[in-house]
């Protein structure tokens, strides 16, 4: 059976197709600058074959039509009817969706309403569900929420210390993000450690251009660094992460910023590694600049490590037992030995010891700590799409509704 994973953004659409239950990826691709006259359609399939075309793709419906048409014309699949499931990444499930769920008109409407919490994503994602229902009516659809992994967090961790009425009336709480990635890493690491997933205690570090750290106790999320939105927590590529909220009105007055939306743009898109370094949001550019003596690039790197260390330290304290492992993943976590080494050095007095040779691994599963390290350290590449496809397969195969 073929299952498709869909990851829709406001101006991009990423897709993958898997043969299940073999978990064999048969094609993947994306459309960038969707909504414009010069969108870029790419697909990778077969034995390293690639299709790429720059063209006008002005609507979501046209985007999906093109993907479906080309799946056939490129010979990737024989019949569209073979696609039996579509799994959608949904950014916010709010407090309503605690697990992945099969899609009905009710769930689509709820996903759209949750646009209140994720205005740039949920409405678009709900719209794609409707487009697929129209263009591929025989396929069952499933929603996989970035937030649902965090449904198990206790109130002490998800509540903010403000008047409780803002939670009760306005739903202000920590929802977390990157949940599908952390969940995949938890399951895969449990396998690698030969432990039942309900027994693993981990600290998972998803360090990419977006970055978050999650504390996992007995196979459940205990706390995570992202918050009401993904702006919270660690310093990131372009996001500030946590800062004193009083800075906001102060900056507005000092800098003559009149709209809160403009300030949010600064915090979301012009801060983090980019803002501090003034060079780039890409870790590789900063490595180069710092090596060439750029002090701001070095400062940005040091602050980045500092925030990671502080979160790991607080989660080590929060977990009731020592974790089975610290697990690095995502673009930087998987590929940047220097970053991992710097974090390990800071944690050495807690018994974390990284092996400098094993640490050279990039983009591959490996235990990188020394045999005598009190806490194991692993690199495990993430695979959110596979998690989406697995959930979709499981739900449509067993016909369970997991809401
Ligand atoms: P992601 O958001 O997970 O795709 O991660 C993007 C980040 O990973 C960017 O900051 C990249 O610079 C970083 N990255 C990707 N490959 C490497 C690499 N080989 N070495 C260092 N950083 C990398």
What would your notes on this structure say?
- InterPro entries: Ac/propionate_kinase, Aliphatic_acid_kin_short-chain, Aliphatic_acid_kinase_CS, ATPase_NBD.
- Belongs to the acetokinase family.
- Its main location: cytoplasm.
- Keywords: ATP-binding, Cytoplasm, Kinase, Magnesium, Metal-binding, Nucleotide-binding, Transferase.
- The chain is of the alpha/beta class and 403 residues long.
- It folds into two domains: 151 residues, ATPase, nucleotide binding domain (Nucleotidyltransferase, domain 5); 186 residues, 2-Layer Sandwich (Nucleotidyltransferase, domain 5), CATH 3.30.420.40.
- It contains 14 helices and 14 strands.
- The protein has an eight-stranded mixed beta sheet, sandwiched between helices.
- Helix 2 runs antiparallel to helix 3, helix 6 packs across helix 14 and helix 11 crosses helix 13.
- The longest helix has 24 residues.
- It binds adenosine monophosphate.
Q: Which key phrases capture this entry?
A:
403 residues; alpha/beta; Nucleotidyltransferase, domain 5; 8-stranded mixed sheet; 14 helices; 22% strand; globular; binds adenosine monophosphate; Ac/propionate_kinase; ATP-binding; kinase activity; metal-binding
Write the layout of secondary structure elements.
Elements: E1 2-8, E2 13-19, E3 24-32, E4 36-45, E5 49-57, H1 60-73, E6 83-90, E7 101-102, H2 105-113, H3 122-135, E8 140-145, H4 155-158, H5 165-170, H6 179-192, E9 202-207, E10 211-217, E11 220-224, H7 247-255, H8 260-269, H9 272-277, H10 283-291, H11 295-318, E12 325-329, H12 330-335, H13 337-346, E13 366-367, E14 376-379, H14 384-398
Parallel strand pairs: 1-6, 6-8, 9-12, 12-14
Antiparallel strand pairs: 1-2, 2-3, 3-4, 4-5, 7-8, 9-10, 10-11, 13-14
Helix pairs in contact: 1-3, 2-3, 6-14, 10-11, 11-13
